[in-house]
Amino acid sequence: MELTIIDNSLHSRLNVIMFKIITPDQYKTIPWKNGSGNTTELAISPGGTLQNFDWRLSIASVNKDGVFSDFSGYDRQLILLRGNGIKLTHNQRHFDDLRSPLSIAAFDGSYQTLGELHKRPIEGFNVMTNQQTCSAQIKTYSQRQNLDIHCGDLVFVYAAYQSLKVQINQHSLCLPAGHLLQIEACAVQVNVVGAGFLVIDLKPFD
Predict the structure, then answer these.
(1) pTM for this structure?
(2) Do you know which InterPro entries this protein is assigned to (predicted)?
């Protein structure tokens, strides 16, 4: 579903709000750069490829210990969705230990990062941003929320475990589990009711 709303109630000028729900059948399966597995690509910046993009959202299962792909020039954020957790060792010096659902690790894509599972495979949500063009602010919510979001240029909401109720100005919708909501707007008010979700605010550099 993709909708465009023209709203003149927020500013003296017209405010154009574009949003769409990206469904699992629209996701793409992409091989890892290191050839050790596949990732499910949910969304990527317009015209982006695996070798060159501004931002990219994906989900991957990690079934064994191993070194992450090299993404020099990109910032990476990994959110644990399912599994017992994973320990990340960056350049043999820095550590992140993800054990709780929706916990986040942020690291430079140029690091040599070793992932070591805590006994069982995991599923992780990956956000990558080009260090020259944009950044991502990510917040996760494991408990039930009635949350107001002040959207910027580009915001995503991912329903990780259960459906969410979303209101964008006067338009209400249901975001099913496993679906991704993309909102392009200027200072629009969004309300989300539910639990177990991510909010990703992508900010382009001037």
Answers:
(1) 0.90
(2) RmlC-like_jellyroll, RmlC_Cupin_sf, Uncharacterised_HutD/Ves
